[in-house]
Write a structure and sequence with these properties.
The protein is built from 6 helices and no strands. The protein is mostly helical. It has one domain. The model has no long low-confidence stretch (mean pLDDT 88).
Length: 107
């Protein structure tokens, strides 16, 4: 499967999730991807063309449903930022964690 086909498959998965969860913002999807270690979603959410397609799809779904976003935008943005930070901590190589522990002990 080439890169374009992989991206298309990932987008279908994201769209299916969005179809089953009304009122999602892009940041809600981002938080979900980070919280659930969906690396393939994270890559798609960072891909410039895919990001635009996802945002347009979510906007279209929200307009069709006539329902507001699930959370206020500032809450969704903060949740996404917190989820990204937690993801980075979980996926940081173990040797870096040991270096941080060593630095903490030295203080």
């Amino acid at each position: 499967m080439n890169e374009k086909e992989q991206l298309s498959e990932i987008l279908q998965e994201i769209f299916e999730y969005a179809d089953n969860h009304t009122g999602l913002s892009y940041y809600d999807l981002e938080a979900y991807a980070y919280e659930n270690d969906k690396d393939h979603w994270i890559a798609a959410l960072k891909h410039k063309q895919a990001r635009r397609m996802i945002a347009l799809y979510l906007r279209s779904r929200r307009e069709q449903s006539g329902k507001p976003y699930t959370h206020p935008m500032r809450v969704s943005i903060q949740k996404a930022a917190d989820a990204a930070a937690a993801y980075m901590r979980r996926h940081r190589p173990i040797y870096e964690m040991e270096e941080i522990a060593d630095e903490t002990v030295e203080r």
